[in-house]
């Protein structure tokens, strides 16, 4: 499906989001905060629009996606950029390889998002950061109703006029409707092992930006200190026998 929409993907995206996709990308790049020399994985990168923005600070960015069609369009648009054909659920990267991993509007499309989150955790260095930008649920009922009406009545008409594959966008609307809300996705991220998990809504919650961190490894000095404390507690601890319930006086 993504191979088929690849050619007009970026244009349709811009139109459907009414220009918001640019704002969401800028917010995502800011949240990743890439630094020169850092290794960053942009997963489900599509044609690499976000990947190129991430690389502007001098970070070493890899754009990975499993659609050969999206990658082909990406390579044409950004010659010389590193694109890798990869499945988010079985990443062809070593453990602890990246300083940051990000995925924009891709996690929702992965067959097993929890498996993909655990793969992202695996390839991140200890202390590394995760940023997930994904469609979500506007928490306010009024905005939610407006958004649902847009998806049902306006989006199909826009898609007919701009996309080469309108059926693909029916899938898009369905996948957004079925995707969990901000709190549930935060729980999935925590479940994959990430700490300091938080999110913030963009465009009244149409999109949410989620963050998490792979816990840092303790330095050798701190690990040794922790070992000494644990051993001391174990050595000094006294086994207290379980207390017998007091006999009740009659
Ligand atoms: C909606 S596009 C988003 C592309 C890009 N991140 C962006 O923000 O424009 C979703 C992308 O997820 C990719 N994708 C879906 N499932 C995937 C998987 N299991 N592994 C890697 N990429 C996947 C698709 O090929 C597609 O390029």
Walk me through this protein's architecture.
The protein is α/β, with parallel strands linked by helices and 250 residues long. The protein has a single domain (2-235), classed as 3-Layer(aba) Sandwich (Rossmann fold), CATH 3.40.50. The protein contains ten helices and seven strands. It has helices spanning 2-5, 9-16, 20-32, 49-54, 68-77, 113-123, 141-162, 166-178, 182-191, 220-236, and strands spanning 39-43, 60-65, 83-85, 98-104, 124-135, 195-202, 207-213. A seven-stranded mixed β-sheet has the order 3-2-1-4-5-7-6, sandwiched between helices. α2 runs antiparallel to α7 and α7 packs antiparallel against α8. The N and C termini lie far apart (79 Å). Residues 245-250 have low confidence and may be disordered. The structure holds S-adenosylmethionine. The site of S-adenosylmethionine has 18 residues, from α4.
Explain briefly what this protein structure is.
The protein has helices at 2-5, 9-16, 20-32, 49-54, 68-77, 113-123, 141-162, 166-178, 182-191, 220-236; strands at 39-43, 60-65, 83-85, 98-104, 124-135, 195-202, 207-213. With 250 residues, it is an alpha/beta fold.
